[in-house]
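Show me any protein, keeping tokens residue-aligned.
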Amino acid sequence: MTKETIKIDLTAHEGLMVSASNATLNAQLAMQSISSVVSSITEISSQGLTNDYITDEDFQIFDIKAQELYTLSSVIYQLISDTYSALIDADKVSAVEVANLLLNSSGVSQEDKEAIKADPNQAVSNIQKHMKESNQ
């Protein structure tokens, strides 16, 4: 399934933050998927080609590399966040991230998803407003 995202005008720094956040989220999902597959394969694969040519240690390397990718993307995101925090509207970036998560959530109605797609700027404004109200 292709991940849906909203398109709104962001500064270059804000766009970089959203991209880094998406990379971190995708790396986390990949890490979780790979870990699940690796543990399943090593549990159920006691014979056949998998057992003959690939050891449990070989599978563990995939798991470790996925964890490293997630760690590196998290570090890059934090570096970007720390470096550009004074130059961005963090609430706006967070609201864009929330809107993108809502678009891809199975728990959100199709009507709400269509409203986000129809007017992404208003959706981001509403999310920002709700986030500020929640923090008070």
